[in-house]
Amino acid sequence: MSTWLSEREERLVDGAEKLDFQSPVPTQIVSNGEYLPPPQSPIQKKVEDRIKELADDNSKFLGLTRREYLMTNCGMAAAFIAMNEVYGGGVFQVDPAEARDPEMTKVRADSLAGQFIFDDQTHFLRDDFSHEEITGLGEFAAEHWNPVLKEEGISLTRYKFENYIRELWFNSDTKMSLLSGAPFDDPTWYLLYNNQIMDACDTVNDFVGGTRMLGHAVITPGQPGWMDTVDEAIAGGNPNLISWKSYTIGDPLAPSKWPWRLDDEKLMYPFYEKSLKAGINTICVHKGLMPPDYEQSFRGLWQYATAWDVEKAARDWPDMNFVYYHSALRPFLELPDQAWSEFEATGRIKWATDLIEAAQAAGTGNVYGEIGTSFANSAVAHPKFSAAFIGTLVAGLGADHVVWGSDTVWYGSPQWQIEAMRRLEVPGDMRDKYGLPELGGPNSLTKQAIFGLNSARIYNLGMTNVDNTPFPNFGEDKLAELAQNYRERGGGPTNKRYGFVRTA
Predict the structure, then answer these.
(1) What percent of the chain has pLDDT over 70?
(2) The domain defined by 118-474 carries CATH number 1.20.120.1730
């Protein structure tokens, strides 16, 4: 495995948790260590400085320290005010009064607390994940960034189950999650094995006496014995197994020996048939998010991360749902300035527009775009591009075919992502020029659909009400009780990000 940060790259980054200034919304792109993140741009630095100015002013008005203020809803509002001021365009819907009116922000937060949010892409690491390269990163972090890791042991606890629960359900408005994994050529690199994904779902759901977590089974088409893995997952009969997860490029971190196509009739069509017979009619496929040097680092393979195989597979298997993670967006851990320039000139977004056109050509209504990481990185780096990205997906796939995902727990609590989506709007000039739709307020029908109703339909959860009537009443189960106790004891968001930020 060669694409974890090199020694040279390690000298260019620092731990995101070490940053003195913990903004409610990240002010630079955070990498999980797979690839080198870009430096903070001058405009991102302006956003950070403006957030500090607003925080200093408003915290004094409210009798709080700056740190205390930034962990409030007022502090979150101040971050979006700063982004609107610096980036322009009014992408985020925020009232300036929210920055210093706790009652106003409380009323808003309380009104949205019951919103049904189904996170279609979440992760944590298995306890026995101890691959040497990962351990090495942890040791480097302990030595140079975070001494507490020495006390805890190099266990990457920030990415483990306990912190997953805390960040996802105690520190955000998420109601249900889909626990995901990833394939590797070397299976010892698996974040979670399939049985561990199911065990985690069982543990959480048994505890709450309901359904809070559902799961994938990871598949590795083309690898020796991969259909045996499929058979084992089906034979397990776990009701929490609702979909499959895979990467057509084979391995997310390095050139793979086993890339594959969704429309490979010999390889994949027997799998689709078997899956449908077993009552599992959804596969979630990583597309896009290639590094800037993808043509070199994934030479001869990068095409497998594009939408080149989407149309035929969707048309031939209309009863199978194909959910494309990241919506095939190409830019990854980089400032999307070039992507924005291309969109301004052409109205197209690299690979995402290809996905939309493939879905339209298939005409089968079984292609969905998931927005994890794609939305997070673009909202931080270029809000106008983020609006263009979401607007393009809604216009092309339909509001009923875009699904929410955050890639938690890689970036800490997903609450800032939830707030960014709630506040996101496609500016009027962009709507007029590119034929993009209005997204509406925080609880608009479009955003209700994206946040949860689309996934509820895909996975037959039985929730169809557009008024977001809780399904079930998540506010009264044991997990909600624990979350309330956590907050009453002083627990709450830290605004910490996990991973690496560029410092040089």
Answers:
(1) 86
(2) no
